[in-house]
Amino acid sequence: MTTIFGIPIQAFLGQLLLGLINGSFYAMLSLGLAVIFGMLRIINFAHGAQYMLGAFVGYLLLVNLGIGYWPALILVPLAVGLFGMMVERLGLSRLYGIDPLYGLLFTFGLAQAVEGIFRYYYGVSGNPYSVPPLLAGGTNLGFMFLPNYRGWVVVASLIVCLGTWLLIEKTRLGSYLRAATENPRLVQAFGVNVPLLLTLTYGLGSALAGLAGILAAPIYQVSPLMGSDIIIVVFAVVVVGGLGSILGAIVTGYMLGLAEGLTKVFYPEASNIVIFVIMAIVLLLRPAGLFGRDA
C-alpha cells in the first residue's frame, strides 16, 4: 500500500479533502465578513446566525413547500440577503459614526436572538437535508473515492469567491463601494447614493453567509448551533488574512482549512487549536494579518 510519511495515501488524501471542504466554508464565510468590515467597518457577529439561517431557510423550503436544493441555491441567498438589508437599514445605519463597539454589540445581540428563536422551535438536535440526486454517490479517482457533492461544494465555493473578488476589485460598482468607505461625502457629491451602497454591501455579505449555509446543509446537520460552532474559527481566519482584505479572506480560508486537515493526519490532538495557534503566530509577526495593510 502506498504511503506518505507512513500514512496510507487514502487516509492522507481523505483528510486533505476534508480540510479543503472546511476551507471552502471558511473562505465563503470569511469573505462575507471581510466585505462587511472592509466597506462598513462593522464586526458582524451575526454572520454565524446568518449562515445558520441560510441552512434553515433551505430546510424549511424543502419540508414545507417542497422546493428542492437547486431553486434554494437562488432563493436562500436572496432571502438572507434581504434580511441583512433590513437589519442594516433598521439597526446598523443608526450606529455609523459612533464607537464601533456598538455595532459589535448590536450584531452579537441579534445573533443570540436569532439562534434563540430557532432553538426554541427546533431544539438543538440536527435536522437532515438530503444530498440532491444529481450529486449523489461518488467518483473513483483511482487513488481515492471522491463524493460528488463534496467536490461540487469546493467548485461552487471557488466560483463564488472569485466572482465576489472580481465584483469588488474589477467593476465600477466595486470602485464606488471602495471609494465610499474612504470618503463617503465626496462620493455622494458625485451623485452616488452612499446609504444604498452600504445597505447593498451588508446584504451581499449576508447573502454569502446564506449561500454557505445552504451548501453546508447536506453535509452537516441543520442545527441552530451550527453558526455559533463555526463563527469563532471564521473570525480567526479573517484576522490571519487581514481585516477587510477580500483576497486575504479567500486565500487564508482555504489555507487554514488545509492546515487543519493535515493536522488531523499527523497530530489529531492539535487539529482543534491549530488555526488559533497560527493566528497567534501571525499576529505576533504581522499584526495587520498576512494580506492586511499596516496602519
From TrEMBL:
Presence of the UniProt keyword Lyase in the record: no
What is the topology of this protein in the membrane according to its UniProt annotation?
A: Multi-pass membrane protein
One GO biological process from the UniProt record?
A: amino acid transport
Give a Gene Ontology cellular component term annotated to this protein. plasma membrane
Q: Which GO terms describe its molecular function?
A: transmembrane transporter activity
Give the transmembrane ranges.
12-35, 68-88, 100-122, 149-168, 189-218, 230-258, 270-289
Q: What is this protein called?
A: Branched-chain amino acid ABC transporter permease
Originating species:
Pseudaminobacter soli
